[in-house]
Amino acid sequence: MIVNNFIQLTLLSLLTKAQVTNFGSEDGLTEVRKRVAEWEYPVAPRDESATDTYWGKTVQDPYRPLKSLLDPKTLKIIDESNQFTKKVLDLDVTRSSVRNDLERMSAYERTSLTANVNGTIYQLYNPGTYTQSILTRQRTTVLVKLLLKIFTKNFVDE
């Protein structure tokens, strides 16, 4: 019940936020509420008899069957939930524009601070189009060693 309520509230907030600008009136919200009421949520397996006892107090744990991730029932509810979420998110007319804006804003070149280890400089580099940064390394030359010595002497108190 808690999982379904959380999914419902999350999706409702996303959908109403996106659709209010599309409809622009209270009638639009009423239309969205009608659509939300028609949704068929995936039903998670429950075990009402599952309980735990903590410091002498009994606490119900109806969703204990979901704790085993490789159980076919758990995999089925995960699959159904993903399909349901995708279907609802595809209804959002602003989703593609928000996604494009986020991709555009995150597409910039990034480098991490350098680390000098045993005469080799290590650095993480991302040109802005990769999902993960690349670890780069470079052997230091005499000039690089001299520059590192100058900069570390100026910026780090010995």
Write structural notes for this entry.
The chain has 158 residues and is α+β, with helices and mostly antiparallel strands. It has two domains: 105 residues, no CATH class; 46 residues, no CATH class. 50% of the residues lie in helices and 16% in strands. It is built from five helices and six strands. The strands form two sheets. Strands 3, 4, 5 and 6 form a four-stranded antiparallel beta sheet that branches. β5 and β6 form a beta hairpin. α1 packs antiparallel against α2. The radius of gyration is 26 Å and the shape is flat. The mean pLDDT is 79.
Give the arrangement of secondary structure elements.
Layout: H1 2-23, H2 26-37, E1 51-54, E2 57-60, H3 72-90, H4 95-106, E3 110-111, E4 115-117, E5 120-126, E6 134-139, H5 142-155
Antiparallel strand pairs: 1-2, 3-5, 4-5, 5-6
